[in-house]
Amino acid sequence: MWDAIFSTANMLAMICWAGLILLPRWPTLLAVILYLGVGLLCLTYTILLPSIMGGWIDPVGPADAAVNFTTIEGVRSIFLSDGGVTVGWTHYLAFDLFVGLWIAKDADAKQFSRVLQAPILFATFMAGPIGLFLWLVVRERRARLAGRTK
């Protein structure tokens, strides 16, 4: 079961990323990426996380250990099961795709070329915060340069 959920989430994210990077950004495409991509990944996470944390499916950690987010041991225990890894990965996929969608829309609104956007979006796909950081640097640099020319 977990392999199927993991594979489906990965495939959905990859299809959305390919569309975001390679296809024209029609409003319908952006809506599909937001609602069917990000939305379904978020829904999956929203349903599965409480189920795992509550011990209803694929409980994580030892039976006598409390799973929590306040210690490294508590967070580590979440990832000790296939369900925990799948839910954690789905979280990354949903959040990175949402950030990529925001970057693409923001870059389009600021008239950045798609050639410049592609490596930033790819970096976001592969290593979320790195791509976001790159976008913030590029975006701020242009804003500062535009401010000097006024």
Descriptive notes:
Helix 1 (2-22) runs antiparallel to helix 2, helix 2 (27-53) runs antiparallel to helix 4 (82-109) and helix 4 crosses helix 5 (114-148). 79% of the residues lie in helices and 0% in strands. It has five helices and no strands. The model has no long low-confidence stretch (mean pLDDT 90). The protein has helices spanning 2-22, 27-53, 72-78, 82-109, 114-148. The chain has one domain (2-148). The chain is mainly alpha-helical and 150 residues long.
Give the number of DSSP strands: 0
Low-confidence stretches: none
Principal-axes geometry comes out as elongated
Task: Give the domain tally.
Answer: 1
Q: What share of the residues lie within helices?
A: over 70%
Calculate the mean pLDDT score and round it: 90
State the main characteristics.
single chain, 150 residues
Write the layout of secondary structure elements.
Elements: H1 2-22, H2 27-53, H3 72-78, H4 82-109, H5 114-148
Helix pairs in contact: 1-2, 1-4, 1-5, 2-4, 4-5
Short description:
This protein is mostly helical. It has five helices and no strands. It starts with a helix and ends with a helix.
